[in-house]
C-alpha cells in the first residue's frame, strides 16, 4: 500500500481513527475528515506523523453539498490523485416510526448516502490505477432493528449504491467497491448514545454471535477495511463483507 492516497471520512474517532491508523501503518498517505467541534482529529494526524506517516485533515460536514468536491480538491492538490476512499462518516438517530421527523430522515440520508455517493463522483477524474472504494454499512441494513427506520434505510441504500459502483465503474476505472457491515462496535458513540432498550436487544444478539460473545473492537473492523483497500482484494467487488462476527450474514 506504499504511496497510496486514501480519504477516510469521519476519521477523527471510532472506526475512522482505527482505519486511518491501519492504512497509514501500511504506507498510505491519509486525508481524514472531521466535523466541526471534533478536536480529536489533530491528535490522530499527530500520531500518524509521529509514526513516520503522512496525514492531513479537512473539516467537512456530511450535510454540506460542497464538501465532496472540497475534500477531493485538497487531496489532489497535495498528492495528485486518489487511490482509496473509505466512506466511514455516518449519522444515526433512534426513533420509533411514529416519532420520525423529516429533519432526522433528511440528515441520515444526506450523511449516510448522498455524501459518499457524491464524494466518489467528485473523485472520478482523479482516481489512481486501481482504486478501492470501501463503504461502511451496518447490520441494521439487513436485520431491521426497531427504532431505526431511517438509519437502516440509509445503509441499505448505501449497499445498493455500492453494487452499482462495482458494475458501472469496475472495468472503466479498474475499480473495486465493497461494503463492510459492522454490528455493535465499542466506540464512544455506541457507549454514549445507544438507547437502553436497544442495548438490551443487542446483548441478546451478542450472546449468539458465532465469532465470540462480545462486541467488536475498532481494530476488528479496521483490519477488514484494510484488506478491502489492498491489492489482495482485487477479485472482490460488489460485496457486503461480514464484519460483525457472524451475527448477521450477508
TrEMBL record:
GO molecular function: oxidoreductase activity
Keyword annotations of the record: NADP, Oxidoreductase
Domain of life: Eukaryota
Pfam family, one: adh_short_C2
SMART domains with a match to the protein in the record: PKS_KR
Gene3D superfamilies per UniProt: NAD(P)-binding Rossmann-like Domain (3.40.50.720)
Domain Ketoreductase stretches: 4-189
Family per similarity comment: Belongs to the short-chain dehydrogenases/reductases (SDR) family.
Protein name in UniProt: Ketoreductase domain-containing protein
Amino acid at each position: 500500500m506504499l504511496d497510496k492516497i486514501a480519504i477516510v471520512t469521519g476519521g477523527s474517532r471510532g472506526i475512522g481513527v482505527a482505519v486511518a491508523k491501519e492504512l497509514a501503518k501500511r504506507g498510505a498517505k491519509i486525508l481524514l475528515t472531521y466535523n466541526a467541534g471534533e478536536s480529536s482529529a489533530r491528535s490522530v494526524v499527530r500520531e500518524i506523523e509521529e509514526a513516520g506517516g503522512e496525514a492531513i485533515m479537512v473539516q467537512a460536514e456530511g450535510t454540506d453539498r460542497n464538501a465532496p468536491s472540497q475534500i477531493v480538491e485538497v487531496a489532489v492538490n497535495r498528492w495528485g490523485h486518489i487511490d482509496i476512499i473509505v466512506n466511514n462518516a455516518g449519522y444515526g438517530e433512534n426513533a420509533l416510526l411514529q416519532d420520525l421527523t423529516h429533519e432526522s430522515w433528511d440528515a441520515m440520508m444526506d450523511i449516510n448516502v448522498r455524501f459518499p455517493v457524491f464524494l466518489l463522483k467528485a473523485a472520478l477524474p482523479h482516481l489512481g490505477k486501481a482504486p478501492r472504494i470501501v463503504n461502511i454499512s451496518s447490520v441494521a441494513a439487513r436485520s431491521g432493528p426497531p427504532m431505526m427506520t431511517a438509519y437502516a434505510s440509509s445503509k441499505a441504500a448505501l449497499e445498493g449504491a455500492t453494487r452499482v459502483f462495482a458494475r458501472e465503474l469496475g472495468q472503466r476505472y479498474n475499480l473495486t467497491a465493497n461494503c463492510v457491515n459492522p454490528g455493535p462496535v465499542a466506540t464512544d458513540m455506541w457507549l454514549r448514545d445507544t438507547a437502553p432498550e436497544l442495548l438490551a436487544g443487542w446483548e441478546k444478539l451478542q450472546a449468539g454471535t458465532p465469532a465470540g460473545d462480545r462486541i467488536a473492537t475498532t481494530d476488528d473492523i479496521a483490519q477488514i477495511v484494510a484488506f478491502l483497500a489492498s491489492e489482495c482484494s482485487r477479485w472482490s467487488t460488489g460485496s457486503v463483507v461480514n464484519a460483525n462476527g457472524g451475527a448477521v450474514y450477508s
